[in-house]
Amino acid sequence: IENGDEEAVQEITRIRRKECDRKRRMNIAKYVKPNQGRMVMAVQVDENGTPVRYDSHEDIVRVVNSRIGQRYKLGLRSPLSMGQLAEDIGQYAEKEAAKRILDGTYEFPEGTDEALVELLKEAARIRVAFDTSNTEPDYVTVEDFISYWKSAREKTSSSDSGRHFGHYIAASDDPELAILHVESLNIAARRGTALDRWKSALTVLLEKVMGNILIEKLRAICLLEADFNWWLKMTFARKMMSDIRRQDMIPMEQVATA
Predict the structure, then answer these.
(1) The pairing of beta strand 43-47 with beta strand 50-54
(2) Secondary structure (3-state) at 192
(3) Residues 227, 248 contacting (CB under 8 angstroms)
(4) For the chain, which has fewer Cβ within 10 Å, the N-terminal or C-terminal residue?
């Protein structure tokens, strides 16, 4: 300001005005919004009709692992996870049969669920159409990185490793740091190898209803590494979906109509 830098003055004024507006909105929301759930510090479970409360770290982890873990295993009830078909493709679709399904050359075992067969045949048709569409691999760019992280909320929870949103927001202001982050993501994508820190995530329990800590009534969210979560959004939700939408490959069954 002393040097007469009008551009700096305008930027500082803009930041201060933005912070004042945000504080004003937060003060209003404090009185007009209903009470929201918070992070859980204790859980309650129903054991033989008797409510039991656990509030130590060890007990909470033990109870949550045994109860919440079942929510992530519902897919095992699917016909895709049962019988000869499941054995043929493997748990991670790592066997040769998985490739043959997508190539359209797999012979489905007798008795396989008819709806599942039709679904997998449609997946194979889309895969073949996509492979012949001359679509080039679309990696994330420095522009993608900077555009997203410059507008990200620093207080967003993420990253068990400690590389929180603020780390990437700061990197978005330095083109060289942005290039470093983007290249590490693209190298991992090209090699098909996940970074070690991507292999762990943090499960957080939140109250759906203020004060209700019954474990069946808690919302469990899984926090991935911030850069990995962003890469998934850009690669699948934005770039891949844009490609298949542009080539009219999305089945009508997946499109809501009025």
Answers:
(1) antiparallel
(2) coil
(3) no
(4) C
Is residue 47 classed as helix, strand or coil in its secondary structure?
A: strand
Query: Is 51 strand, coil or helix?
Result: strand
- In this structure, is the dihedral angle defined by the CA atoms of residues 77, 83, 84 and 90, taken in order, positive or negative? positive
User: Residue type for 150, please?
Assistant: K
Residue 253 to residue 2: CA distance in whole angstroms: 63
Which structure tokens are listed for 89? 């493709």
| Predicted local distance difference test score (pLDDT) of residue 98 | 92
* Helix H or strand E segment including 146: helix 142-150
d(CA 52, CA 42): 11
The pLDDT > 90 percentage for the chain reads 31
Let me know: does 208 contact 217? Beta carbons within 8 Å.
Answer: yes
Which residues are registered as beta bridge partners of 251? none
| Number of residues that make up the chain | 258
pLDDT by residue (tens digit) across 57-103?
888 888 888 888 788 788 888 888 888 999 999 988 889 999 999 98
Q: What are φ and ψ of residue 138, in 5° steps?
A: -115, 95
- DSSP per-residue string spanning 62-111: HHHHHHGGGGGGGGGGSGGGSHHHHHHH-TTS-SHHHHHHHHT---PPTT
| Dist CA 62 CA 190 (whole Å) | 38
Phi-psi region of 49 (alpha: psi -120 to 50; beta: other; left: phi over 0): left
Beta-carbon neighbour count of residue 243 at 10 Å? 15
In whole angstroms, what is the distance from residue 136 CA to residue 243 CA?
A: 10
**Model confidence over 197-255: pLDDT tens digits?**
999 888 888 888 888 888 888 888 889 999 999 999 999 888 888 888 888 877 777 77
